Amino acid sequence: MPRVGLTPERVVAGAEELADEVGLPAMTLAALAARLGVKLPSLYKHVSGMEALQREISLRAMTELGQVMSRAAAGKAGDAAVIALMAAARQWIKQHPGRYATTVRAASATDEQAVAVSEEALSVLMDVLAGYGLSGKDAVDGARAVRSVLHGFSTLEIAGGFGMPVDVDRSYDLLVQALCRSLGSWGSATPA
């Protein structure tokens, strides 16, 4: 019988917090059980294992990140939308590094729920890129560029990868401005 008060929701919430504190690779079911004050077998009444738990974290994280980006970009267009969306996402990633780590891998095409959640978050970015006149393959390329800049900078920042004595925010702002200029001419660019 499941412990009173322990629910799948509470297990996932505890796992999210733990992942953010110790990092996704260091999060174990044993550590989660200890955090929740239960024995390890009790967790299996609420989640089938680490893979299922990470999937649940990913679904919630992708939904939350999509909402954060949507709120940030609301009422904005072009550079202002990209700058706001990326700033909000960067802040969320810094606050939730463990949760974010579950969102990096593309959803499996056979997981309809994960695909739907991923597409919902991606639609926010695609709407912003449409403000640059990007559609089809150009929009996909633009989305990959935005995601790569955001992911690369944020994960390096979280890992302490910027040790030089120059303001990290200055470097970030310059990078985002360069990306915005690039997006402005993206559709006319032809890959070699």
From TrEMBL:
InterPro entries: Homeodomain-like_sf, HTH-type_TetR-like_transc_reg, HTH_TetR, MT1864/Rv1816-like_C, Tet_transcr_reg_TetR-rel_C_sf. Residues 28-47 bind DNA. Pfam families: TetR_C_33, TetR_N. It comes from the Bacteria. The keyword Cytoplasm does not apply. Residues 5-65 form the HTH tetR-type domain. The keyword Transcription regulation applies. Keywords: DNA-binding, Transcription, Transcription regulation. SUPFAM superfamilies: Homeodomain-like (SSF46689), Tetracyclin repressor-like, C-terminal domain (SSF48498). This is WHG domain-containing protein. GO terms for molecular function: DNA-binding transcription factor activity; transcription cis-regulatory region binding.
